[in-house]
Amino acid sequence: MNSPRFDVISIFPEYMQPLSLSLVGKAQEKSLIEINVTDLRDFAEGLHKSVDDTPYGGGAGMVMSPEPWAQAIDSLSDDPEGNYELIVLTPAGKKFDQAMAYELATKEHLIFACGRYEGIDYRVTEHFRSKRNFTVREISIGDYVLNGGEVAALVILEAIIRLIPGVIGNPASLEEESHSLSDESAEQLVEYPSYTKPAMWRELEVPSVLLSGNHGEIARWRMEQSKARTKKLSE
Ligand code: ADE
Q1: What is the mean pLDDT of residues 93-119?
Q2: What is the spatial distance between Cα 191 and Cα 146, in angstroms, rounded to a whole number?
Q3: pLDDT tens for each residue of 5-53
């Protein structure tokens, strides 16, 4: 299989520069993944290369026009054999979580549509939903409103790409993370607190059980801590 491909469409392609850094940047250098950023404005018409207009029905703000979006997406999905997932970033979407990250990490080609203003004309979502080789998802990264989908795309990309085989140097850390998710019966617990050297720092000691060498005790302590932290979050 080809390496997974990620396209991002935005009127601010520079927003995606962090993707050239760190593990995600290295994953591209190693050809484990391919990331491509498209400037929506390249598909805008007219002197002003306008990509938005006033909303039908009235109201504040501007709505992104459908045609530049459709042309941009068409230009990235011209393989008749291809299967495409269009991800529309919107606070009205389904809340992104780790289970969704695992699912998206198995896809061959994701296209992220980063809208600005009051969002993208909804017919773009409807149009691509009606296509045989497209799956369309509307995704939110949380219950707050950003100025656009770019930061949301960065968040989702980072969560997905680190799950792709070979991207993380030590796959054992992924193993540990995945346990609570793959076990249907387990409650979803947050991580236990971590410590490193020195054992005494600014008069604070590392919990002595972690220095004991007793792996059973350590595992038990960590589980208790995870449970206590998880409970505290729901208070
Ligand atoms: N665009 C604006 N706010 C957003 C959010 N919370 N999640 C995804 N896309 C967005």
Answers
A1: 96
A2: 27
A3: 999 999 999 999 999 999 999 999 999 999 999 999 999 999 999 999 9
Do 69 and 112 touch, CB atoms closer than 8 A? Answer: no
Contact call for residues 88 and 125 (beta carbons, < 8 A): yes
Residues in the chain: 235
- What residues contact residue 27 under an 8 Å CB cut-off, 6+ apart? 33, 161, 164, 166, 167
Give me the amino acid identity at 51. V
Secondary structure class of 94 (helix, strand, coil):
strand
Confirm if 153 and 141 have CB atoms less than 8 A apart: no
For residue 147 and ligand 1, the question of a CB distance below 6 A is answered with no
The residue whose two tokens read 């979050």 is 233
CA of 198 to the centre of ligand 1 (A): 41
Ligand 1 in contact with 24 (CB < 6 A)?
no
Orientation of helix 150-161 relative to helix 22-29, angle to 10°: 70
Q: Degrees (nearest 5) of the Cα angle 77, 78, 79?
A: 95
Asked whether the whole model's pTM tops 0.90, one would answer: yes
Determine the atom of ligand 1 nearest the C-alpha atom of 143.
6
Nearest CA to ligand 1 atom 7: 140
Beta bridge partners of 36: 7
Cβ-in-10-Å burial (0-12, 13-18, 19+) of 90 comes to buried
State the DSSP string of 146-206: -SBSHHHHHHHHHHHHTTSTTSSS-HHHHHHHHHHHH-TTS---PPPP---S-SEETTEEP
